[in-house]
Write the structure tokens for this entry.
Amino acid sequence: MVSEAKSAIISKMTLSVGKDPAFATDYDWFLACALAARDRATLRFLEGKRVTASDGKKRVYYLSLEFLIGRQLTDVLSNLSLLDVFRAALEDLGVDYERVRSAEPDAALGNGGLGRLAACFMESMATLGIPAYGYGIRYDHGLFRQVIYDGWQEEYPEDWLSFGTPWEFLRTDVVFNVGFGGSVETYVTPAGITRYTWHPGEVVHAVSYDTPMVGWRGRSVNPLRLWSARAVDPLRLELFNRGDFAGASSDQARAEAISKFLYPSDETPSGQELRLRQEYFFVSASLQDLLSRHRRIYGDLHSLPERAAIQLNDTHPAVAIAEMMRLLLDEHGLPWNEAWAITSATFSYTNHTLLPEALETWPLAVFERLLPRHLQIIYFINNLHLEAAKKAFPEEPELLRSVSIIDERDGRKVRMGQLAFVGSHAINGVSALHTDLMRKTTFRDLNRIYPDRIQNKTNGITFRRWLHQSNPGLTAILKEVCGAEVVDNPEVIERLAAHAGDSALQDRIRAVKLANKTALAKVIAERTGVRVDPAALFDVQIKRMHEYKRQLLNLLETAALYDAIRANPDADWTPRVKIMAGKAAASYVNAKFIIKLANDIAQVVNNDPAVRDLLKVVFLPNYNVSLAEVIIPAADLSEQISTAGMEASGTGNMKLALNGALTIGTLDGANIEIRDNVGNDNIFIFGLTTDEVSYRRERGITAGQAIAASPMLAGVLNAVSGGRFSPDDPGRFVQLIDGLRGADRYMVTDDFDSYYAAQRRVDACWNSGEPWTRSAIINIANMAWFSSDRTIAEYAREIWNVPVDL
Ligand code: H2P
């Protein structure tokens, strides 16, 4: 095996990379290994496609604007059971696997949880043997690279593709035309039927690239098919010959802009025509592709719902409902009712947020300019939908406003959530609480009209990447204590619980954690210059920077703790390292100020000899999947402190608990289900509940009361807004803090005291030693349910109607 791998790697190095191994760089070795690994995945990949077609198996199509896959090499090798073999082969060749692995660029084709969920789902679908295609965009530049300069975030283009990627196959024969703009022609057939033809004003090519997604033990390999935009004519020769070189390539530049770069999720939607172009581009190509596959295999389109399930990952691909109707009506000549029956039986939609500003809408004018035929179709769908609503609830004209796909208030808009809901047979939330809130708030009226559509599918994470690969030390212990089958069946992790009090096991768990923390401490020193003690409590908050996720609450507590330590330096403090990482959308001013505050606090605290090693603050730049793989196994405390009702689920919370971190969190999203699984004694819950949050909101209770009641809070707000951490610019944080003193939309002030108190419970538990480790073990033991294999099995059975044996 090892010798085979060695010759495969050498052969790729010489014949594909074109390098003499003696002169190969780490990146060359990565290329050679990736190509050798891809060969092994490809045979299975092709075989899977053949069998699916010949056996008439139903396929799942997962449409997502984001796939946050990160690095692939370890994932692919490990899932093909070749990791040790390749490691040994490289060692024989005098090459260190770790360096080779790190030479791979991190594919950051997503923002955060939503994109990473799509990547975990692709892996789980392949693991469960579900034939699936992931469809998305092959962005030249993924999420921006974050550089922290003088404490501020700066954004630079990310360049994962600048040297190509060895994982993908270009499919030169899978190219589709995607149109934009133009006009719609109406005509009546001799049989008296009105038909429509769309004449787009502009056409671009969608070119496909397939990356194999390998399931555990290579059970199956599915394609992630990403579309790249190309101009139909790369160059306008007549302009070029006249010397207008820029004009000659302007069509190309306009077309290629579509797959140039991933939008950060919280950019304001206004004026972002390009984003709508991106959405329609990949949706149209994907639907054309899957319809042509279906016709090739089965002939007739009426059987589509039996052979295909299309999952919309949030509303970003929701225009697919209108595009499917257009293709069936205009291109394939089906009558409306048949087309609608096929569409609604095939589509399902996952909602990931209830934040009003994140619910996608498009101004009618933009929509009409870009997609005139689709707007007609949407009007038609809406008319039928409103008719049905009127019939069901004749006494409630108000209801029509809330369920309409067209928002008639301040400037008419298309509401993508309503469109996705109306066109799907199943709609799901991503945690029990979130789904409940969907039914009660945002989709309340739609839920009354279509009462059985909303389901819950609590998110999950793939244990292959987030436990086995990223934490081999812990995995080795689990194999020994729970049995080697733990890597195939996470449920046996539960066996660990019986040994939670065993001091030998506790010592081993602590030793693994310490080793992981030492590795993280090294990264922290390299990237920030700050030296931290691995024996201290590592307190971690890693996620997109957003006010509802309340990094600011964490920072205020840090500032208060700092003051408390200074006031009483000889007390029995728990040495802590506060570690934060995350990116702020480029246009999100407050989130960027919060990053600056984190760095300003770090500057003051880390350089104050009075606090010694009792408190250190670190903001790690450029958070991505690879960095998460280092931070998560090293965390002692997991910060999941969003305002109750605002975090749909969270998945970082699951990764951290699985790796033995205890959670400090609100009763929000999947935190509630984590608590139910690990038990109240093994988690630190604090803060307002969802009901209390809405009560305050409805009554307009603002921050005044909380501040008046808490001298510590008042003190810390004054300190931050008075320039205590920003002596170079004392007014820097006035506005940020004034936001808390006023509306405090995210109720930071209301939760401050209970958060501070919960942190002191954390200190006491940590100081007690044994009970902490016991709780950590109980957390690990009870996380099996959060495997994305469980989540995908539920989607398969309850939404997609696809067989699965789990
Ligand atoms: C979002 C939600 C999370 C959820 C995730 C996946 C949009 O991710 O906010 O609560 O777990 O989708 O369903 P994020 O905030 O991490 O970008």
About this structure: DSSP finds 34 helices and 24 strands in the chain.
